[in-house]
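Design review, sub-item: ligand-bound model
Attendees: FS, YL, KQ
YL presented the inputs for the copper (II) ion complex:
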Amino acid sequence: MKDMSKATLLKLAGAAVALTIVISLVMVNIDWMGPVASKEKADIVTMLNVTIVISSLVFSIVMVAMTYAIWKFRAKPGDESDGEPIHGNTRLEIGWTAIPTLIVLFAGVYSTIVLNDIEAKADDGNVMEVDVTAQQFAWRFDYPEQGVTSTELHVPSGTQLELHLNALDVLHSFWVPEWGIKRDLVPGADLPGGDHIDSTVRVTPDEEGVYSVVCTELCGWGHATMRAVAVVETQEEFDAWAQDQTEIPGDDVVSTGAGGGKGAGTLDERTLDE
Ligand SMILES: [Cu+2]
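KQ shared the predicted structure:
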């Protein structure tokens, strides 16, 4: 097998780049992630698009090289001889080890930067805490600053939420698709002996509207129905709403679910259809 000429190599590289551009244009223009309604989600969508372009490049190089090899080195009709015995190619092997390593390192560093950005506390200190409690198959939202509780998640637009997530029975997962973030709620997240599973997530909804909190961890028969309303509104609307809500009941009414186990604890005195 003769070495490939420079001109052929350039042509193949050109074909790979052209294919990358075509695939990227199609894939990036598909709205995979749906509407963007939080500060964090924009960064996540950008990262997805960068990943799509890198993946398209790798895919295109493999496809072009494979198509060329199949076409160029195919057996002529009637050729029953064995293929040429070839030994490794050190330069090629170093290349196909180093380049993927660089790509993976880049993706790792970039993801870390984005994750740190979206998990950072808001610079302006405009932060509101909400304690989110999940149980089969309902959500409860406590507002420690306002001292109220609700089965709907209301938040003022543009305020960073610091959601403290807790589950009373089994694993659940908090997701508002338009906000982009998703995090598990772990029963017994504050473990005896000081062990702690990170159960805080930050998100800054910045588009007013009505959304759904969706449980995305298969948590039992009622999993598919485990949704709550999320309302992003103006600060004034939020304040007025908070005034009308029930006070957070004392510890004697709400079980903390300590000890865990299926069915531990009750939500509170209200029924779910209220
Ligand atoms: Cu659930």
